[in-house]
Design a protein that fits this description.
Elements lengths: L9 E16 L5 E16 L3 H9 L4 E8 L8 E4 L2 E11 L2 E7 L11
Antiparallel strand pairs: 1-2, 1-4, 2-3, 3-6, 4-5, 5-6
Amino acid sequence: MPYEYTRETTICESECVLLKKSVETDENGVVTGETVRRNEVFCKVSSLYMRDTYAAFQAGIKPAWKITIFYGDYDGELSVEYEGVEYSVYRTYVDGDDVELYLRKDAGTWQAELT
């Protein structure tokens, strides 16, 4: 069978944990604590295209992975735990029934909301 070029470079199919962080406040608006909802889902881990890597570096972002999950499992989470390391989501892309999450190495919620 001849070599066929594919644009998708899937590294592995694995599991990841989507982290939904929320802040608890009292009646005066004082922060009393933080809760983290963990949602373990199946994902497909891929490497980034070179143009995505260059665009991220130009914006000051150190990209790590692109993971693809089922769109129904995604609830706007901004943090993902993969292989014991917490990453933050800096970009999303919806592709049919799937959503691609582009992860950066330094975890945190530097972005309040994704559009």
